Amino acid sequence: MKEPDQHSSPIKSPKQLIIVVVLAFVIPVVVIVLVTQLVTGGRYGSNESDKDVLARIQAVGHVVIGEAGPPKGTLAGDAVYGQVCKTCHEAGLAGAPKMGDKGAWGPRIAQGQSTVTQHAVAGFQGKTGVMPPKGGNADLTENEVARAVVFMANQAGADWKEPAAPAAPPAATAAAAPAPAQVPTPATPTQARGGADGKKIYDSTCVACHGAGIAGAPKFGDKSAWSARIAEGNNTLYAHAIQGFQGKSGVMPPKGGNTTLPDADVKAAVDYMVSAAK
């Protein structure tokens, strides 16, 4: 029997050669396609919970819009008292009549609602005490101050009526034009603390007392009045301005009477006044 030739090729015809060549290309391609389908054919995240999917697709950042405050001029009398007047009228600082003290409020109520309101709005300095304009908060409207006066006087036995609330502004009928882009400006010396504008805070709050030296406040730019205070150091000045202080030479209500001011704004105003007195 003839033994097979071990060196002979199994391909005996051109047809067999063509089949082998085709299979050599097709089989690897088919294998690759099957493996790819096996790996990627399922839906990504199909086994995840809805919570996990939402966490995975959450945006990198998001915008938070702060809650709008009440429109200017709409604060009620008790709200104005709590934010501004309470600083002096609760403890009787700088001769302010204490809340509910009928003996202290009686002579003032006798002057009439118009006079007391005018003193609260424009400021007043008498023999028994000092009243800075609008309690030291220039952002208050006259109506808001008047409501606070009525609220406090009525707690001491008066029967005054609050002024009418201002009419609501008419609704806009046309879309407002977009505001021009604001170009950032370099910080000035009065804006050195966290962007707070010391001059602006001074003009809106501190000037009520420091502009005229009311209640023993050192006048703006008066080097002789400020020198002893500056010698105490900035940290002491900050503490007195933020927490309030009553000494032999005068009274400093907490945050100048405007308790809504952030500490950084108060410090910026102190820096501004100190720099003007050096």
Could you walk me through the main structural features you see in this protein, from its secondary elements to its overall organization?
The chain is an all-alpha fold and 278 residues long. It contains ten helices and four strands. It has helices at 14-40, 50-57, 77-89, 102-110, 113-122, 142-155, 198-210, 223-231, 234-243, 263-276; strands spanning 124-125, 130-131, 245-246, 251-252. The protein has a two-stranded antiparallel ribbon with strand order 1-2. A hairpin with a 4-residue loop joins strand 1 (124-125) and strand 2. Helix 5 (113-122) packs across helix 6, helix 7 (198-210) packs across helix 10 and helix 9 crosses helix 10 (263-276). The radius of gyration is 39 Å and the shape is elongated. The chain starts with 13 loop residues before the first helix and ends with a helix. The model is unreliable at 184-194 (pLDDT under 50).
